[in-house]
Task: structure prediction
Amino acid sequence: MKVAVFSSKAYDKKFLNAANEGVGHELVYYEPKLDETTARLAADAQAVCAFVNDTLNRQTLTVLSQLGVKLIALRCTGYNNVDLQAAADLGLTVVRVTAYSPYAVAEHAVGLILTLSRKYHRAFNRVREGNFSLDGLLGFDLQARTVGIIGTGKIGMVFAEILQGFGCRLLAYDAYPNPHFPQLKRAEYVTLDELYAQAEIISIHCPLLPETYHLINRDALAKMKKGVIIINVSRGALIDTEAIIEGLKSQKIGALGLDVYEGEDELFFQDLSLKIIQDDVFERLLTFPNVIVTGHQAFFTQEALTEIATTTISNISDFAAGRPCPHQIRYQPKS
Ligand code: NAD
Result:
């Protein structure tokens, strides 16, 4: 099957080509992001392979459908960037990578906590400059800290297990509680308000849905402890960045670790080091000494990329062979 791979980088090519070896799909790589203006690159392809910041709205999907594309193979877990109703209307099948190394993302979230709590980023620069002073590097133990986890699915559970190892007390909120979570040591489900009131560190591991859009907003911040550390490795729009900036300025928020950002589609996955960044909200975030931002790299491990590529190729093969695909996203109209 001919597949147009959008937003492709050298690493996508490497891992997808390896997974495709002996399978034989015709993978054609395009660097541009997929949107209604670039969709025409998929002419002659029966499938499109897309990533997190590609825009799969009704306009893009309509162009793809007119070109004869039948399959949208997402090489990611989240699908908030796809208009599923439009895909269903146009008869397009949408598949995704439902699971890949949850360790990659959970470990990255823990890395952000440790960076903020022990100030590794500052220590790295200092030592390189021959400055071995410890002033300003005072940290705190994670042991016995109360950590709030929003979303206890695959990633949230691994995150919880790691923090259990640090001796943390774990509070979680999930719209669909996971029976395995309360079996962990010092772990219990609470309401979102209780989580906000008690947690010293809050990490978000739920999907971006209409009901979770700007979950962390001014109201939520008002309910949190002073000095709370907030970690978001899930999706940028789960937090209202302007409210977060106010919280950082007032010192309600003690530290912030982000791997995702609401306006990231204009920034991430590209080298802008010689460009003038126009996003003032993002630039303001970077001025705080207690903020660390990584550019959506939580998934970026060898293990995760291998699993993403293998599942993507297998999803495409299922579709090409007319087999049911276990990773198909089915559109469920709201009743
Ligand atoms: P998952 O589906 O296994 O878990 C999501 C959990 O969120 C589930 O337990 C679900 O019940 C819960 N949930 C759903 N609605 C909720 C709500 N309104 N409030 C609270 N909890 C709710 O997904 P996962 O594999 O653990 O991934 C979680 C998220 O991580 C993904 O949706 C994706 O956005 C993000 N992610 C980020 C990266 C990255 O590189 N930064 C990589 C992979 C996934």
